[in-house]
Design goal:
Length: 358
Amino acid sequence: MKTAAGSGEVNVDRRPKLGLCVLCGLPGAGKSTFARALALRLRQERSWVVGVLSYDDVLPSALPDCAGSQSRPSQWKMFRQELLKHLECFLVAAISGGQMAAPPNRSEVVWEDFITCLKKQNLIFSAAPEAQSCHLLERTAVSRPLFLVLDDNFYYQSMRYEVYQLARKYSLGFCQLFLDCPLETCLLRNGQRTQPLPKETIYLMERRIEKPNPEKNAWEHNSLIIQSSGCSLEASLEVADLLITALENPIKCAEDNTEQKETDRIICSTNILHKADETLRKTISQTMKEAKDEQIPLNNLKRLAEELNKLKADFLEDLRQGNRKYLCFQQITDLSDVFSSFCDERDTIVQKYFSKQH
């Protein structure tokens, strides 16, 4: 493992050292507080440039950030996808040393909040007072190692995988920090907020959240699960070591092999379609059992079953035809991608019936 002693400002290929850190956990786990403390420590102790991108600050507040949303998850996913595009604009500018231009077909509210977030942390500045769509990176942001901490719930593995794909595309460092916090503590902290989430939402998310699993997913090997109260010296050293390792060992971008990729895609699509049908049937069965345990009225159970089975049919057709109505991945390579996206949509449906019980 490489250490800070050998940590320069650029990689061997003269590219600036850049890293993405996914900070995830339940609402109320203390992620934002942890992110600010981590950024301050890295700036003071290692002279790194650290930016914290809190999804709560840069995505429309009218849209919830949880599985129990009453809004269509497809709309929420659209904003998340757009934010990743904005992040990519910043990364390209940091790598090339050029300016960051506003992407076309953007949502102005998301772009403006994103720009404001970067400016507050002295990462960018406007090229000219009248230039609202062209920005330059501060000199310190391109002359030192730069880490961006993405602060969000990231409760599904597929959400985090999208960030990993971005890191792989540009050969960046990548790591994950999962802030583990007791459900009771999260609920207490949430209740003290000016705009708390519904308790049912946090209960539902706690049941669905997918912690990093390096044994199952090789891409999650740079992950650390820490207790929300873990502010000990040992925990701090573990976090620092993880970040250094990620920065010193950027992800290698896989070589482009079109023929092999097409072969893999055909085999993978056939296998996933069969497995997806089986998995989604079991998921619906388990969901219906939970609904019965909640003593949801019989007529509502019938409507719930109809909605879930229609959703399953739509998902399988989407997977078969590649319409990408629900599946937002460029290439589906893992059943967990399909499962996570299905659960996203399913939770919206289920929440309507569960909330009527409280």
